[in-house]
Design a protein that fits this description.
Elements: H1 13-33, H2 37-58, H3 62-80, H4 86-89, H5 113-130, H6 142-167
Helix pairs in contact: 2-5, 3-5, 3-6
Length: 191
């Protein structure tokens, strides 16, 4: 009866193999979705709507939704913040350009868009799974949580906007920047 599993074979080997295969397939599709931000965000919007419908239908899990809101607020701050904080870097002498003669430095986020999207999607999926366990359905008066979250959002965003104004950076870019150049009045071969 020796060797039913084979020499040195673990009883968890099929599970490990299945996990590795799933991980490879998941990473493949995640890599394929990288250049498609609009499609990714539409998929996330569907996940958000499904989660909100489930919470609305169940009339519960408000504490899970509140925790989810706090987590998303934290992600949003990372998404809107520069990778190198000018307040901390001012001590080292490196800072964002403030005059036209300063060197151009592109805005680099602390939390890139792809990681921002992935974290939000994963958070909504985890919160959705939590709605299947009554342990997480803590009875609370949800309007108080909503008011507190709104106050927290306003105060946090006010501080972030003041930081953006102080160091003159805009974290949102609406399309690819192009250089127009000078218009030539003569007969150039490009006309």
């Amino acid at each position: 009866m020796e060797g039913v599993l084979g020499e040195g074979a673990s009883p968890l080997a099929p599970i490990t193999t299945l996990k590795n295969d799933f991980s490879k397939v998941f990473q493949y599709y995640l890599d394929k979705s990288t250049p498609l931000p609009v499609h990714r965000w539409i998929g996330t919007l569907v996940v958000i709507v499904v989660y909100l419908l489930r919470v609305y239908i169940l009339q519960g899990f408000y504490i899970v939704t509140y925790a989810l809101g706090i987590y998303i607020l934290n992600l949003l701050i990372g998404f809107l913040s520069p990778k190198i904080d000018p307040e901390l870097e001012a001590l080292d002498g490196a800072e964002l350009p403030t005059k036209e003669t300063d060197e151009f430095r592109p805005f680099i986020r602390r939390l890139p868009e792809f990681k921002f999207w992935y974290a939000i999607t994963k958070a909504f999926c985890v919160a959705f799974l939590m709605t299947f366990f009554s342990l997480f359905d803590v009875p609370v008066f949800w309007p108080i949580l909503l008011c507190y979250w709104i106050v927290l959002f306003v105060l946090t965003m006010k501080r972030q906007i003041m930081h953006m104004i102080k160091y003159k950076y805009v974290p949102l870019n609406l399309g690819k920047q192009t250089y127009a150049g000078k218009k030539s009045g003569g007969n150039s071969p490009r006309d």
